[in-house]
Amino acid sequence: MNYTKISENEIKDWLKENLNEERYIHSLGTAQCAKELAEQYSMDTEKAYTAGLLHDCAKCFSNEKLLEIIKNNLNVEEAEMLNYKTLHAPVSAHYAKEQFGVEDSEILSAIRWHTLGRLEMTDFEKIIFLADKIEPNTRDKEYSEKIKNYLKEENGLNKALLKCYKETIKSLVKRDLKICLLTIEIYNKLEDLVNV
């Protein structure tokens, strides 16, 4: 893998050791799905595969470890700290750089923003975000097919992304969880991009 300082097999060995089995299988699926989406959108498939493989590398760290790494090494907005489920994204980007030698800014940014997203997401960030949601190994097949159908349409990346945000907001409301203001801002921006 020319975007990392160690081989793909060494990365997979590390992931096997540091993720639970389902998360490892999910990471393989995300990498493959990211590669396919990159091909569909004429982007660097190797870069997408690398981002997909490493996107959750810190997912199984304890909350204490994640918070410690954030406190000592990273600049993370307070709004991002509302939900422990999203803390692994900035830490995974940090680990991709420090542990695996990734220096490519697109890969690091795509890993960094694969959970919450951001207002000015690049197309590369969008495909990593979507690959995480629709990979075939662990994600709901019916949901994935709906998202993939949007990807076939004109302006498909934004339509698919909007559908993901709608489902996320519904899920958060249903579970009586806080919604990060950034999520609402991204949703509103995507509504504008899709309904022009």
Q: Write down the oligomeric state.
A: single chain
Measured as a percent range, the helix fraction is 55-70%
* Number of DSSP strand runs: 0
Specify the number of helices. 10
Beta-strand percent range: under 5%
Low-confidence runs: none
CATH superfamily of one domain: Hypothetical protein af1432
Shape: globular
What is the rounded Rg? 16 Å
Mean pLDDT: 95
How would you describe what is shown here?
This protein has helices at residues 8-18, 21-40, 45-54, 63-73, 88-98, 105-112, 123-134, 141-151, 156-174, 181-194. It has 196 residues and is an all-alpha fold. The protein has a domain at 8-139: Orthogonal Bundle (Hypothetical protein af1432), CATH 1.10.3210.10. The longest helix has 20 residues, at 21-40. The chain is globular.
